[in-house]
Amino acid sequence: MSTESPIRVLLAVDEQQTRRVLAALLSLEEGIEVIAEVGHGDEIVETAGRLRPDVAVIDAEPRSGDGLATAVRIGGHCAIVVLSSLGRPGYLRRAMAAGARGFLGKDAPADELAAAIRKVAAGGRYLDTELAVASMTLPDSPLTDRERDALRLAGGGATITRIAVELHVSETIARGLVSSAMRKLDARGHHEAVHTARRQGWL
Fold this sequence. Notes:
Elements: E1 7-12, H1 16-26, E2 32-38, H2 41-51, E3 55-59, H3 67-74, E4 79-84, H4 89-97, E5 102-105, H5 110-121, E6 126-127, H6 129-135, H7 145-155, H8 160-167, H9 171-184, H10 190-200
Parallel strand pairs: 1-2, 1-3, 3-4, 4-5, 5-6
Helix pairs in contact: 2-3, 4-6, 7-8, 7-9, 7-10, 8-9
């Protein structure tokens, strides 16, 4: 048995059942200790700051919020592995830009997740090879961060008023952000713009 300290892992997955299954499977892996299980953005940030894990495994698409935005907020505390159901090159690039060192599909087997945790804890990267190659030839997103945030909210059903509140801007600016995103994506409406951005992995 190894005498080295275990890798301390924060498991931040939105869906409770998935989180429990992953925690149980990782507990069987030698040298890995799940020290906390959380599900929401603010809770993730608070727990990471308080416990200082070695690695955080983050759900990129929680039902509320933006997993990659959370990754940015805790990147100074630990290494990050992103779990995503969006196997698209653009999304991998966004994850890397957010500070993630690992990127896996949510359906990856537990032993592969464990391998990713060990690799990033040692200072390396663990990426889906095909997505990594594809991401090298993908054009950069034409959207600004604000346009992407506005479009993400619109895609979730938010009104212009709600978008303005969430982004702390006027309704005129909120409407302009959505319109600008539509124009850049050559979309006739925000639903089409959301579809295009998600297909490319830009949202």
